[in-house]
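Weekly structure sync, notes
Attendees: PL (lead), two postdocs, one rotation student
Agenda item 3: pending single-chain targets
PL asked that the sequence for the first pending target be pasted directly into the notes so everyone works from the same version. It is reproduced below exactly as submitted, 51 residues in total.
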Amino acid sequence: MTYVSDDFEPDALQEVSDSSKAKGSQFDAHRRNEVLRFFDRFDGFDLVDPG
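Predicted structure, written out during the meeting:
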C-alpha cells in the first residue's frame, strides 16, 4: 500500500496539492496513524518500511 503523507513536509505537500487541484486533479494526504487503523484488525502482521 502506498499513500501520500503530510507528516514530513506539510507545506510542500500543500503546494503540490493546490497545484494539482488547479489542474483538475485532487488527492488527499493521510497521517501514518490514519493509515495504520486499517491494519488494526490483522493480528500477526508487521508493517515494514519500503525497500
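Discussion points:
- The mean pLDDT is 85.
- The longest helix spans residues 10-22.
Action: rotation student to compare against the earlier draft before next sync.
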